C-alpha cells in the first residue's frame, strides 16, 4: 500500500463520513420542519400530557440543541425511543428487522452477482448468436420492470396461480420469492455490465497473445479474461445495495416479511418520526459504506486506474 | 519542384521581350497569363454532397435504428392515448358505480346489462372496473399520464439545472469549478430514493394543509419528487456538461474565435452548447425511466399522488388486495408501466448509439 493510495483512502473515507453526517443533518432538519408534533395526531391527549411526552423525548429544547444531542446519541448507538411501537428503542427494532432484510438482501445480491457474471460471460462469448440474443432480450425486459411489478407478478404466478411457493415470508420456503424478486433486476444489470466488459477484455492484445501461444480456450477465459472483467461489477456494489435496500421496502410488504423495509413503511403509517429518522440514517449509512467499499476495492484490484 | 508546377515557356517569353529578369520559381504572377474557367470547369469544383451537420448525421443513424424508432412510435402512441382519450372517454377516473364493482374486462354489471337489453348503448369497460366500481381503463390511462408527465418534467428540470450548473463550473474553471464539483460529489453520494421518501413524508403534512389546489391535487409524493429532482438528480448532467465544456474550452477553434474578438456569450452559444447537445440528449433520455421508476415506487408505498388521482404504482398497490380473484387489476398497470419504461430504455439506448461520438466508426 503506497502513500498515494493511502491518501486516496483517507480522502474517500472523509468524504463518506461527511456524506453520512449530511444525511443525518438532512434527515433531522427535514423531520423537524414538520409543523405537527409526533404526538398531536393521536387523539384525546391533554396539553399537559403532550408537554410531558415532549419533555420525555426531549422535543421541548431548541432545535440546534436537539440536533447535537441526537448526533451524540447516534454516535453511541442510541437512535432514541420509538413512538409507534411504544416500549421499544429504535435501534432494537432496526436490528430486529435488519436480521431478516440482511438475509434476503445478501442472498439476492449473491445470486445477482453470480448469475449475472455467468450470463454476461456466456452472452459475450456467444456474441451475436442465439444465446446472446435471448440473454439480451431478457435483461432488457428485466431492467424495465420496477421491483413492485416483479414481486407482485411473481406472487401472482408462482404463489397464487400455480401454488408452488408460499406467499407469506414466515412460511417454510417463504423467502424464496422475495429473494428472487429482489435479485432479478440487479442480475440483469450485472449481466449487461459483464457482457460489455467481457467483450472489451476479449479484444485486448494479451488475450490474442495467449491464444497465439496456444493456451486452451477455457484457460484463456478463466485465467486471463475473467479476472479482468470483474472490475466494473465491483463498482456496481454500492448501487446494488441501494437497489436491494429500497426494493426490500416493497418486496417485504408484498410478501409480509417482518424486515427493515416493512418496518420503515409501517413507521410512515404510524408517523413514528424517531423510527423514520433512525431507519433512513441506518439505510443511508449502509449504502454509503457499500459505495465506499466498492470504490476502494475497485482501486485495489485494478492498479491501472487513476487515483482521483 | 514538381514537373507540373514549373512554369512553361511563358516566363522565357517575358525575358525575350526585354522585361526585368524574373525567377522562374517566383510567386509573382501575371494575370494576363490566365484564362477564365468555363462553366463546365466551374461545375467540377462544386462539392458533390451537401455537408452533413452532426445533428443530421445523428438523426439519420437514429432513423436507421429500427428498435429505437419502434419504441419512439410506442411512446408517441401511449402519449396520444394518455392525453387525447380522456377528452372524449365516457367514464371519469373518479365516478364510482356501486353496482359495477370488480367487473372483468368487457363484462357488464346487471344494471348496464338491463340498459343494453332496453336497446341503449353502454360503453364497455375495456379493462373492467375496480373495487369501487370505477372504470379501470380510464384510471390506467390517467396513471400513464402521470408517469409520462413525471418523466418529461424531470427531464426538463435535469436539463435546465444541469446545463446551467455544469456550464458555469466548466466555463469559469479554477476555484469556482473545484467548489461546485465538490458539492456535486457530495450530492452524488446521497442515497436519492431515501431522501425522496423522507421529503415525501415531511411534505405530506404540509401539502394536506396547503391552500394551492394544484399542489393538493398532485399530492405530496409528486411535489417532493419534483423538489428532489430539482435538488439531486441534475448532478450527473452537470458533471457531463462540465467535462464537455472543459475539453471544448481547450480546442483551437475556441481560441481562434476568442482571438478574433468573439464575446463569451457567442462562444458559449456557437461552440459550447452545440458540442454538448449529444451528452445532454443521452443523459436526459437515461433520466426519464429512472424518474418514472421512482414515482411509481413512491405511489406503490402510498407516498405518491393523492387519492383519487390514480398512478400506475398506486393502482398496482391497490390490486394486491384482490389479487387472487381479479388479477387483471394488477396486469394492466404492470404491463403499462413495463411498456413505458421499456420504450424509454430502448429509445435511450438508440439515442446513445446515435449521438455518442466515441462509438462512431
Key structural traits:
heterodimer; A: mainly alpha; 13 helices; B: 361 residues; mainly alpha; MetI-like fold; elongated
Explain how this protein is built.
The complex is a heterodimer of chains A (308) and B (361). In chain A, 74% of the residues lie in helices and 0% in strands. Chain A has 13 helices and no strands. Chain A is flat, with a radius of gyration of 24 Å. Chain B has one domain: MetI-like fold (Orthogonal Bundle), CATH 1.10.3720.10. Chain B has 15 helices and no strands. Chain B has helices spanning 10-16, 39-45, 54-64, 66-88, 110-117, 136-172, 174-189, 192-208, 213-218, 220-233, 235-249, 252-259, 264-300, 312-319, 328-355. In chain B, helix 4 packs across helix 15 and helix 6 runs parallel beside helix 11 (235-249). Residues 1-6 of chain B have low confidence and may be disordered.
The arrangement of helices and strands of chain A along the chain is HHHHHHHHHHHHH
- Total strand count of chain A, please? 0
Q: What is the tally of beta strands of chain B?
A: 0
| Main interface: chain pair and counts | A-B, 46 and 40 residues
> What composes the largest sheet of chain B?
none
**Poorly predicted runs of 5 or more residues of chain B:** 1-6
Cα distance spanning the termini of chain B: 38 Å
- Low-confidence stretches of chain A at least 5 residues in length (pLDDT < 50)? none
CATH topology of chain B: MetI-like fold
What is the secondary structure topology, with strand pairs?
The complex is a heterodimer of chains A (about 300) and B (about 350).
Chain A: H1 3-32, H2 47-57, H3 63-75, H4 90-125, H5 130-142, H6 147-161, H7 176-202, H8 205-212, H9 217-229, H10 231-235, H11 237-254, H12 260-269, H13 273-301
Helix pairs in contact in A: 1-3, 1-13, 4-5, 4-7, 4-11, 4-12, 5-7, 6-7, 6-11, 7-9, 7-11, 8-9, 11-12, 11-13, 12-13
Chain B: H1 10-16, H2 39-45, H3 54-64, H4 66-88, H5 110-117, H6 136-172, H7 174-189, H8 192-208, H9 213-218, H10 220-233, H11 235-249, H12 252-259, H13 264-300, H14 312-319, H15 328-355
Amino acid at each position: 500500500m503506497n502513500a498515494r493510495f493511502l491518501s486516496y483512502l483517507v480522502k474517500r473515507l472523509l468524504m463518506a463520513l461527511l456524506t453520512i453526517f449530511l444525511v443525518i443533518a438532512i434527515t433531522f432538519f427535514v423531520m423537524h420542519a414538520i409543523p405537527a408534533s409526533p404526538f398531536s395526531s393521536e387523539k384525546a391527549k391533554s396539553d399537559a400530557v403532550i408537554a410531558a411526552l415532549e419533555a420525555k423525548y426531549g422535543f421541548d429544547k431548541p432545535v440546534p440543541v436537539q440536533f447535537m444531542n441526537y448526533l451524540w446519541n447516534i454516535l453511541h448507538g442510541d437512535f432514541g425511543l420509538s413512538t409507534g411501537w411504544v416500549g421499544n428503542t429504535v435501534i432494537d427494532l432496526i436490528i430486529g428487522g435488519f436480521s431478516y432484510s440482511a438475509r434476503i438482501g445478501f442472498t439476492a445480491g449473491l445470486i445477482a452477482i453470480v448469475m449475472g457474471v455467468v450470463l454476461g460471460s456466456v452472452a459475450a462469448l456467444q456474441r451475436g448468436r442465439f444465446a446472446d440474443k435471448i440473454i439480451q432480450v431478457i435483461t432488457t425486459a428485466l431492467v424495465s420492470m420496477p421491483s413492485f411489478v416483479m414481486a407482485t407478478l411473481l406472487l401472482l404466478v408462482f404463489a397464487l396461480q400455480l401454488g408452488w411457493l408460499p406467499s407469506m415470508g414466515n412460511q417454510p420456503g417463504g423467502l424464496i420469492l422475495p429473494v428472487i424478486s429482489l435479485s432479478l433486476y440487479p442480475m440483469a444489470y450485472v449481466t449487461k455490465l459483464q457482457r460489455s466488459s467481457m467483450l472489451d477484455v476479449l479484444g485486448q492484445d494479451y488475450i490474442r497473445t495467449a491464444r497465439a501461444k496456444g493456451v486452451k480456450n477455457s484457460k484463456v477465459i478463466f485465467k486471463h479474461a475473467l479476472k479482468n472483467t470483474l472490475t466494473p461489477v465491483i463498482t456496481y456494489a454500492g448501487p446494488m445495495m441501494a437497489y436491494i435496500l429500497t426494493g426490500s421496502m416493497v418486496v417485504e410488504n408484498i410478501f409480509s416479511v417482518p424486515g427493515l423495509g416493512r418496518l420503515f413503511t409501517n413507521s410512515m403509517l404510524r408517523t413514528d418520526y424517531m423510527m423514520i429518522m433512525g431507519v433512513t440514517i441506518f439505510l443511508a449509512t449502509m449504502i454509503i459504506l457499500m459505495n465506499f467499499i466498492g470504490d476502494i476495492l475497485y482501486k485495489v484490484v485494478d492498479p491501472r486506474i487513476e487515483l482521483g | 519542384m514538381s514537373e507540373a508546377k514549373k512554369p512553361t515557356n511563358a516566363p522565357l517569353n517575358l525575358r525575350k521581350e526585354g522585361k526585368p529578369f524574373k525567377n522562374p520559381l517566383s510567386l509573382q504572377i501575371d494575370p494576363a497569363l490566365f484564362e477564365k474557367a468555363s462553366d463546365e470547369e466551374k461545375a467540377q469544383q462544386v462539392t458533390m454532397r451537401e455537408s452533413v451537420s452532426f445533428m443530421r448525421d445523428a438523426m439519420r443513424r437514429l432513423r436507421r435504428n429500427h428498435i429505437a424508432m419502434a419504441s419512439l412510435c410506442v411512446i408517441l402512441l401511449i402519449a396520444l392515448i394518455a392525453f387525447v382519450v380522456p377528452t372524449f372517454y365516457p367514464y371519469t377516473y373518479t365516478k364510482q358505480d356501486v353496482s359495477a364493482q370488480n367487473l372483468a374486462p368487457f363484462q357488464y354489471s346487471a344494471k348496464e346489462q338491463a340498459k343494453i337489453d332496453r336497446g341503449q348503448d353502454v360503453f364497455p369497460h375495456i379493462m373492467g372496473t375496480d373495487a369501487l366500481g370505477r372504470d379501470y381503463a380510464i384510471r390506467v390511462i390517467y396513471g400513464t399520464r402521470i408517469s409520462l408527465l413525471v418523466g418529461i418534467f424531470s427531464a426538463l428540470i435535469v436539463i435546465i439545472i444541469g446545463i446551467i450548473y455544469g456550464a458555469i463550473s466548466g466555463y469559469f474553471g479554477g476555484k469556482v469549478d473545484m467548489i461546485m464539483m465538490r458539492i456535486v460529489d457530495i450530492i452524488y453520494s446521497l442515497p436519492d430514493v431515501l431522501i425522496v421518501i423522507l421529503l415525501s413524508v415531511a411534505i405530506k403534512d404540509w401539502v394536506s394543509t396547503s391552500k394551492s389546489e394544484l399542489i393538493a391535487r398532485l399530492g405530496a409524493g409528486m411535489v417532493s419528487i419534483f423538489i428532489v429532482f430539482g435538488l439531486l438528480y441534475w448532478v450527473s448532467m452537470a458533471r457531463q456538461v462540465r467535462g464537455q465544456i472543459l475539453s471544448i474550452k481547450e480546442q483551437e477553434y475556441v481560441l481562434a474565435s476568442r482571438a478574433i474578438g468573439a464575446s463569451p456569450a457567442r462562444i458559449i452559444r456557437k461552440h459550447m452548447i452545440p458540442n454538448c447537445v449529444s451528452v445532454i440528449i443521452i443523459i436526459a433520455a437515461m433520466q426519464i425511466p429512472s424518474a418514472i421508476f421512482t414515482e411509481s415506487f413512491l405511489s406503490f408505498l402510498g407516498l405518491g399522488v393523492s387519492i383519487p388521482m390514480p398512478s400506475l404504482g398506486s393502482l398496482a398497490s391497490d390490486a394486491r388486495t384482490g389479487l387472487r380473484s381479479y388479477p387483471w387489476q394488477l396486469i394492466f398497470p404492470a404491463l403499462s408501466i413495463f411498456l413505458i419504461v421499456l420504450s424509454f430504455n430502448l429509445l435511450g439506448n438508440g439515442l446513445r448509439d446515435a449521438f455518442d461520438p466515441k462509438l462512431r466508426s
